Amino acid sequence: MFFLFLVLVALIPLCIGVSIFFMFKKSKLAKVLFLFLILASIWQIDVAFLFSYGIFPIDTIDFFFRLLRIGSIMLTPTLFYVGYTITQQEIPMLFKSKWRYIMNRKTVIVFYGWSFIVYLVGWSKNGIASLKIIQPNEAFHFYFPTYGNLSWIFDTNVLMFVISIIACFFIGKQIKQANLRSFLLHFIFTTAVGYSIGILNMYPEAKLFPSAVAVLVFAISLLILSNRMHLNIVKEMNNELDQQRTFLRNVIDLNPNYIYAKDQEGRYSLANLSFAKLYGKEIDEIIGKTEFDIQDDKLLAKEIFQRDQTILAESKGVMIPEEVIIDKKGNIRWLQTSKIPIKTNETTVLLGVSNDITERKYHEDEITYQANHDVTTGLANRRLFNEDLTTLFKKNNSELNSAVIMLIDLDRFKYINDTLGHDVGDLLLIEVAKRLEMFLVENKLTNAKVYRVGGDEFTLVFPNCTKAESIEYATSILQEFKKGFSFGEMEYYITPSIGVSLYPEDGRDAKTLMKNADTAMYYIKEREKNNFKLFTEDMNYHFYRKMMIEKELREAVERNEFELYYQPLADIDTGLVSGMEALLRWKNKTLGVVSPAEFIPIAEETGLIIPIGEWVLKSACEQAFNWQQMGYRPLKVGVNISIRQLLDKNFLKKVATVVENSKLDPRYIDLEVTESIAMHDSDEMISKLYRLKEIGVSLSMDDFGTGYSSLSYLKKYPLDTLKIDQSFIRNITKKKDNQAIVNSIISMAKHLNLKVTAEGVENKEEYQFLSNLHCDFVQGYDISRPLNAEDFENNILVTN
Question: What is the pLDDT of residue 94?
Answer without folding.
Answer: 54
